[in-house]
Amino acid sequence: MGFRVILVEDSMSLGALYTEYLCSEGADVTLVQFGADAIKEIDRQPPDLLILDIKLPDMSGMDILLQVQQSHPEITVIMITAHGTIDIAVDAMRSGAFDFLVKPFDSKRLAITVRNAMKQRQLVKLVSQYENSLPKANYQGFIGESLAMQTVYKTIDCVANSKASVFIFGESGTGKEVCAQAIHNAGNRKNKAFIALNCASIPKDLIESQIFGHTKGAFTGAVSQRDGAASQADGGTLFLDEICEMDLELQSKLLRFIQTGVFRRVGGSKDEKVDVRFVSATNKDPWQQVQDGLFREDLYYRLHVIPIELPPLNQRGKDILLIANKLLWQYAKEEGKPFKGFNHAAQKVLSEYHWPGNVRQLQNVIRQIVVLNDAAEVDIDMLPARIVKDGKLSVAAPASANTRVMEQASASLTAAHDTVADIQHDPNATTEQVIEPLWKTEKRTIESAIDLCEGNIPKAAAMLDISPSTIYRKKQSWDEMEQV
Fold this sequence. Notes:
Elements: E1 3-8, H1 12-24, E2 27-32, H2 35-44, E3 49-53, H3 61-71, E4 76-81, H4 86-94, E5 99-102, H5 107-133, E6 138-139, E7 142-143, H6 147-159, E8 166-169, H7 176-186, E9 194-198, H8 204-212, H9 229-232, E10 237-241, H10 248-260, E11 262-263, E12 272-273, E13 277-282, H11 286-291, H12 297-303, E14 306-309, H13 319-335, E15 341-342, H14 344-352, H15 358-372, E16 377-378, H16 385-393, H17 401-425, H18 431-434, H19 438-452, H20 457-464, H21 468-483
């Protein structure tokens, strides 16, 4: 495992025993008896893990904990004591300790705690690297620094150099083509062609020709041979927008093309082979389209290899104002207007409006404001009346996913409270039979949040107001607890 531990324990016999336990876990242990020696050792070479007794001969372990949190917040701290109370444990955790152990404890209990602590350190490092590597507000044509968008950016970075098919889904106006272009530009095909086709806007009898091309005389009006999107995208990316609108018969031909890279022009007699990366998009539920018989299941599995869900604008929080300001400056420059920003009232309305048309609707609204007005600041009177009215009413809108998650968490906590209350009022109740361990209640609440967010852990963490690393740490802890 290979990690460094400073063990602060005033009892030499216990210190030797705990050192033996830790060495069996692969730790390099430095044992000290006094708080002052611990501080000197920490300053000399900060450890990965500090195991700290609360009662020491020269000072309180809690004072050392607070000092370490200020000077070396990266150190993971486990508090130990022979005089444990709930209040002390709570104080230790609030002060930044990872865990709290009451002596005496055996090697197994210490090992589980240490393993969880080291796993948490690894996850925190990964999350930190992940967050630091992400652009804060602008990325490949996107504007937004919300957690939901950071997840999208990270996914794009991960898949950009792969040839795996990507399926983008999201409401109209969320930026599906921007996402497809970003995948292309971030990858090793960026110097080749990016060809986009909207399957909903091309007539049914022409779309096959648009994709595969045609030979001269293939149909009326085909006066010369023409390359289709498949040939044009050779070496690059073919983006098929609104893929669920494609005719079923053509879907079967597209499936063969995706499987083999081979196609035949309309009216042609020979096969051609190209190297194309496929990116598809829809504003519908693709699996529901399969269930309804409107989209081939085999094609769905070929295209739906890497799914990317673009969040609606009303779930992106401060991104609304971030995008609005960016658009305002851009359009003001184009139109030669003096606009610099929005006043507080206008910001409030924009933030509260539900934006059914998403970013595209926001673009139109900002353009309208700039064209029809001339001022340094946008006020509420410049906003479209419908935006103002609906923005004020949106506070009473149906519960969001965030609200549902919080309601689920509240319900779980209430149920736990009621269970305890029932026991208190029933003298015949047996605590072992009725009380459920707190970690199981917490586990159920967090898993419910993840289910409501369709498995998206960063999104569930944001809605529960905790960090993703906390969920990952707890999941690891649950596994350990269930094995005990």
